[in-house]
Amino acid sequence: MAFTCPSFGLSRSWSSDRFDTNVSLHHSCPDPNLAPGLASLQWSPGPLGRAISIGSQLGSVALQGDHAQLVPKPETKLYHRRWLMLFLFSAVSASNAFMWLQYGIISNIFMRFYNIDSLAIDWLSMIYLLTYIPLILPVLWLLDNRGIRDVVLVGAAFNCIGAWIKIGSASPDLFAVTFFGQFVCSVATVFVLGIPSYLASVWFGETEVSTACSIGVLGNQLGIAIGFLVPPILVPNVDDLDELAHHISIMFYITAGVATLLFILVVFVFQERPELPPTQAQATARSIPPEQYSYTASILRLLRNRPFIFLIVTYGLNVGCFYAVGTLLNRMIIDHYPGEEVNAGRIGLTIIIAGMVGSLICGIWLDRTKTYKQTTLAVYSMSLVGMIIYAATLNLGHLWVVFITAGALGFFMTGYLPLGFEFAVELTYPESEGTSSGLLNCSAQVFGIIFTICQGKIIDRFGTLAGNIFLCVFLLIGTIMTGKTLFFDRQTCAMWSHSRLLISSHCTRTVFVCDCYCFYEFKC
């Protein structure tokens, strides 16, 4: 039975216990004013296990034919071991993130130990960002062609090898060795940083993916938090270089031991995917032949997606500021509070712990409300406010104030990380989540390098306040651009506002087109 309206032909099929209902909308009266891709829409489950609104599919190509078909509903199942996979991946990510900041948070100590300048120490952190840029595309290809297990396994291997290389660098004349070990660890970052959204979709149900993605991001943040807290404790600022070398060796041995244990666990425990898919959408994704997917074409489509390009830039601005703050935190705190290396680490810990709470809350909020656009703009705006307050209070002479303002900054700035991934999925359906996440992270690395170098130079010449104002300016630009991203999305929705349609029977399925409240509700 078919229902039609002046603008659309709609066909649908009835459902039973064994069959799923497919509903498709096809534009029967082509309008030359419509953008390419708006001529047809089809409701379908999201990529890799997500239920995606029809508004997320604008610009995608509808399936051929005007008739819906009865499709057997595949069996689905949620396995308890999905949490083990998520925990193991998060632990690998945390181990790698710890080594990112183990130098920067005690930069003054390593500068004296290796007899190097501040820029050389900064590069021990920025090498993580630089390595990501040329390697992300090959790793995305590997993810799409070899799967998540191989990618995580290679990442854990590089993480382990780099940690052991650094053990041999605990001597003042071996800075080159420690830099090489850090470079190897930075390669591991490329293999783990964009995995959370992909792993969440492959293993978790529709109502869990945002929370699972947030937990995956939270694992990385936990590693950064430990990286802020532990190095100042393990490596005290002592005058004797031999004693200092001993403390540094202890830190390197601990990190190598943890990285080795995690690599062994990944080899024997981590799995590619569950036997049965967690969702109908994941079952559909599994049924698509690999030869029908073009990696290059997917990237080109993403780069032609104007709202996504805006998101790439805004995500890079926000996360790039976060990278700069994390890398230069010790210098900023020591400048105003000399001798407070341990408290600098605790302030960094406060930023990350607050951010972990923010990430988790944002993930749960998205799972319950699906308000990606409004939440993204609100959190981005509050990141700007938090940065302004942090910059204004850093030089007041009260560390307890810095703890509070830094915590507020971390809550929103770090809480934005999973939001960016989730919003990207909404804007880029039906493209691979690994690809969109990889491009977001690539942007973050580029801006992270630029901001870290520029802010470091500004701090050296004009002080920490000027350096933080520099970041505030770019967060303001990012907030404005985020609002523009929503504007473009609403413009697209406006094309459909005249086509509100309500069809009733006895069971309800609602598909929302963006946020302009053009909706289609089907009952069978």
UniProtKB/TrEMBL annotation:
GO biological process, one term: erythrocyte maturation
Topology in the lipid bilayer: Multi-pass membrane protein
GO MF: heme binding; heme transmembrane transporter activity
Keyword Mitochondrion part of the UniProt annotation: yes
SUPFAM superfamilies tied to this protein: MFS general substrate transporter
Gene Ontology, cellular component aspect: endoplasmic reticulum membrane; mitochondrial membrane; plasma membrane
Major facilitator superfamily (MFS) profile domain sequence ranges: 82-490
Catalysed reactions, as listed in the record: choline(out) = choline(in); heme b(in) = heme b(out); ethanolamine(in) = ethanolamine(out)
Database matches in InterPro entries: FLVCR1-2_SLC49-like (IPR049680), MFS (IPR011701), MFS_dom (IPR020846), MFS_trans_sf (IPR036259)
Keyword S-adenosyl-L-methionine: no
Membrane-crossing segments per the record: 83-103, 123-143, 150-167, 179-200, 212-230, 250-270, 308-326, 346-365, 377-393, 399-419, 439-459, 465-487
Chief subcellular location: membrane
Location of this chain's protein in the cell: Cell membrane; Endoplasmic reticulum membrane; Mitochondrion membrane
Keyword terms, alphabetized: Cell membrane, Endoplasmic reticulum, Erythrocyte maturation, Glycoprotein, Membrane, Mitochondrion, Phosphoprotein, Receptor, Transmembrane, Transmembrane helix, Transport
Family, similarity comment: Belongs to the major facilitator superfamily. Feline leukemia virus subgroup C receptor (TC 2.A.1.28.1) family.
Biological function: Uniporter that mediates the transport of extracellular choline and ethanolamine into cells, thereby playing a key role in phospholipid biosynthesis. Choline and ethanolamine are the precursors of phosphatidylcholine and phosphatidylethanolamine, respectively, the two most abundant phospholipids. Transport is not coupled with proton transport and is exclusively driven by the choline (or ethanolamine) gradient across the plasma membrane. Also acts as a heme b transporter that mediates heme efflux from the cytoplasm to the extracellular compartment.
Protein name: Choline/ethanolamine transporter FLVCR1
Species per Swiss-Prot/TrEMBL record: Scophthalmus maximus
